[in-house]
Design a protein that fits this description.
The chain is α/β, with parallel strands linked by helices. It is built from 14 helices and 13 strands. It has a five-stranded parallel sheet. Strands 2-11 form a two-stranded parallel sheet. Strands 4-5 form a two-stranded antiparallel ribbon. Helix 1 packs across helix 2, helix 1 packs across helix 9 and helix 12 packs antiparallel against helix 13.
């Protein structure tokens, strides 16, 4: 696979497909039996979003985050361990007064990196969690007398254990809304578990290669240029509006959620695209519907207070809402939807 920066200005669908498949192979070499979740995680990376890994301990959340960080050549990584006594300055950095120059010098924190793993993010106090809001949305941080732009690409991978709530602080809606996707890894199948046992004790394996950061940026820019027709925009907005009008949802999708769904759908269109002649890839309603639950479910506040902490209940409600939204005939007439 070509991964040189020279290939970046002439990005084609074939280049994107080859690069994406190459990355899947590298990440799967350390996270066995999770092809679907790896595809979704890489989709999040190329959509320019942030990823929330929500699952029980020991299923590979941190392994996936470290594997994603390791496949970017020339990129930087940061790691933050969530604890109740963590302070905002421990994440963002701080300005230190230098007596020799009589000036303040900014010392960046671990958030100033391309890939940032925030392990057990829900163990931080709300004050510390709020330090992420500007960084995740604006890709910059502001501290005393200093503003720091974050590198490109910039991806925050948060992990949390939904079963262990003692000593944790639920993520506020404003922060959940800044995560493009929420994924659940689940337990490995029997074959993957057997292979894990075989390789145990043989040393920590690596991904075996990395993609130049320039090539990754070119792939991200190519994904952002995928065509979307006006009727497909309307279909996406119909889904967003439906979440706001549904009786089972107290707080529906925000405008940011709609933008994130579009970004994710553009990448998803490339992953699902079947080349046909000279036709360029475009987004279809199927591409939106396929990714909508992963993008929207964690942002919903359900009307039933007893189900608000349940990821399964959120996914079930959003899945029903998405399936109830009809595809407009204008989309079908334009050939943008099969049937």
């Amino acid at each position: 696979m070509q991964t040189s920066d020279a290939a970046a200005p002439t990005m084609r669908f074939e280049d994107f497909q080859a690069g994406f498949n190459w990355l899947i192979q590298r990440v799967e070499s350390v996270l066995l039996g999770k092809t679907g979740q790896v595809r979704r995680a890489l989709l999040c990376l190329f959509a320019g979003g942030h990823l929330l890994l929500d699952d029980v301990p020991g299923v590979g959340k941190t392994t996936l985050a470290r594997a994603l960080a390791s496949v970017i050549e020339g990129g930087t990584t940061g790691r933050i361990q969530g604890t109740p006594d963590l302070l905002p300055s421990d994440i963002l950095g701080t300005s230190i007064f230098e007596p020799d120059t009589r000036r303040f010098t900014f010392r960046p924190g671990p958030i100033v990196a391309n890939i940032v793993l925030f392990d057990e993010i829900n163990r931080c106090a709300p004050r510390t969690q709020s330090a992420l809001l500007q960084a995740m949305q604006e890709h910059r941080v502001s501290t005393f007398r200093h503003e720091e732009m974050l590198p490109d690409p910039f991806l925050v991978i948060g992990t949390q254990n939904p079963q262990e709530t003692l000593g944790t602080y639920p993520l506020p809606e404003a922060q959940l809304d800044r995560f493009l996707l929420r994924l659940t890894l689940g337990y490995p199948d029997r074959e993957a578990a057997r292979e894990m046992l075989r390789s145990h004790g043989k040393g920590e394996g690596g991904t075996g290669g990395a993609m130049p950061i320039g090539h990754l940026r070119a792939m991200t820019a190519y994904a952002a240029s995928v065509e979307v027709s006006d009727p497909v925009y309307d279909y996406l907005l119909d889904i967003v509006d439906a979440t706001r009008d549904d009786r089972e949802i107290a707080l529906g999708a925000s405008p940011r959620a709609g933008v994130d769904l579009l970004r994710a759908a553009r990448v998803n269109a490339l992953l699902r695209w079947q080349p046909r002649g000279d036709t360029r890839p475009y987004v279809s309603p199927d591409d939106i519907r396929d990714i909508a639950v992963d993008v929207l479910a964690h942002r919903m506040v359900l009307a039933d207070r007893g189900k608000r902490g349940s990821a399964e209940a959120q996914r079930a409600v959003v899945s029903r809402v998405v399936n109830d939204v009809r595809v407009r005939q204008a989309v079908v007439r334009q050939g943008r939807f099969p049937g």
